[in-house]
Amino acid sequence: MKHIFFVVGALLVVSGCNSSKSPTDPTPTNPNTILYTAIGASDAIGIGASVPCLPLTPCPQGTGYVQTLERQLRTGANTVTLLNLGIPGTVLSPATQSLGNSIGREIFGNMLEREVPFVQRDATLVTVFAGGNDANTIGAALEAGLGGLNPTGYVQTQIDNFGRDMRSLMTGVKDRAPTARIVILNLPNLAGLPYASGYTLTQKRFLQQIAVGFSGQINTLTSQGALVIDIMCDGAFYQANMYSGDGFHPNDAGYARLAALMLPAATTGSAAAPRASCAQMTLF
After folding, report:
1. What 8-state DSSP symbol labels residue 26?
2. Which of 90, 127, 211, 282 has the least C-beta neighbours within 10 A?
């Protein structure tokens, strides 16, 4: 499967940049102040958008979903302080990072170690988009033969591990910011995205198993208080005109759609429950 991620020079200094955020920053006194931390990968800095951003750099005019959501939140008397921790190419856990590096994917970071520990202590909003790079890494591992004689079982083990690690992410965020509103995107069926159009049917079916399984694990986080935004069952995310030229990252329209879906949950603290089944889960 395709090796899709971006390596940015700033990744080499992520630890140094992140360490400048003091865990003892004062609590804001303005009740209309939104302290927003974004956890993610290249999506969080808007790769694929017409105005992408650099990691760990203010980018008020960016057209990714994080930057769009920030502008939408900054209305009326609201002020918004954004800490965007998104690292291009990152995966969720050290285990998936090691797996990817073992097959030559050169993954430079993972969210549990490089992002969660730096969530703002007094964050009022945390958004999370995880799993796309992980799914592609597991797909590449299958292509490298790591599934052995039971690739389906191998994939299921990886799905279970992803669920465990997402629960760890939730615990870590709550430990850092116990009163934060946590909004998490699940995944679309990646096998139905433009970048997978040239895959074999077998490859598509495994990628579908991974993406649907990951989204199922994310959906269970509602029991821990997360607001899960269901893009798996949103037909808009299966339209080619929502994606950039690489067929994987959204374009401006795709990112705008993500921000529009997240805004009600971010502002009201409620979201419709993700669907347990839909046609998009069984495309192949």
Report:
1. P
2. 282
